[in-house]
Structure formats: structure tokens, C-alpha cells
Design a protein that fits this description.
GO terms for molecular function: kinase activity. Keywords: Kinase, Membrane, Transferase, Transmembrane, Transmembrane helix. This is Histidine kinase. This protein is mainly alpha-helical. The chain has a domain of about 55 residues. The protein contains 4 helices and no strands.
Length: about 110
């Protein structure tokens, strides 16, 4: 008996797997590879949608609470309030996305 364990022959699916690099390919990869930095950028669409939905909810609540029930055009007041708050909250969400993006760029350096 020898002091080392007998090696098992490779399975047929492992021996012929084209995705497994050879030793020469591994050496080339190790010699030419460089470190990479992953940048975590915000998803702007999610920020804008969140800002718009928050604006709609806040606008409806604010428009209904502030307007008087006896107003002739109460719902027009609510719609204008919704449009105004949605504009403001969407712009605020966009600003937050840009600030988050700048922060991620600064951290990746």
C-alpha cells in the first residue's frame, strides 16, 4: 500500500466539460486578471415611482382634509393638490437618487 490515497478517475461529464479551464488557461487568467470594483448604483425608476406614489397618497389626503365639504369644485382642488404634491415628491425622490448615485461613485473609488 502507498501512503497517498488512490485518485479516482474523473467522471465523464467533468472530463469533457468545456467550461472547466485547463491549467494553461488558469495561468493566463491569473496573470492577466485585474481587481474589479462593483458599483452599486440606485435604480432611478424605483425612486421616481416611489416619489410619485407618495405624492399621490399625500395629495389626496391633504386635498380632502384641507378642502371644505361645501366647496363647489372640491375635487378640482383635490386634483390640483395631488398634482402639486406629486411633482414635489417626485423631484425630491429624483434628488435622493442622484445623491445616492454620487455617494456610490465616491465609495467605489
Amino acid at each position: 500500500m502507498t501512503s497517498h490515497e488512490p485518485s479516482t478517475p474523473p467522471r465523464p461529464d467533468e472530463a469533457s466539460d468545456p467550461a472547466t479551464p485547463t491549467s494553461a488557461e488558469r495561468e493566463t487568467i491569473e496573470r492577466t486578471a485585474t481587481d474589479a470594483h462593483v458599483r452599486r448604483a440606485p435604480r432611478y425608476r424605483a425612486f421616481f415611482w416611489t416619489g410619485a406614489l407618495v405624492g399621490i397618497v399625500v395629495g389626496v389626503v391633504l386635498g380632502v382634509v384641507v378642502s371644505d365639504a361645501g366647496m363647489v369644485n372640491r375635487w378640482i382642488y383635490v386634483v390640483v393638490t395631488v398634482l402639486g404634491t406629486t411633482l414635489v415628491t417626485t423631484l425630491a425622490a429624483g434628488t435622493a437618487a442622484v445623491l445616492a448615485d454620487r455617494r456610490s461613485v465616491r465609495r467605489s473609488r
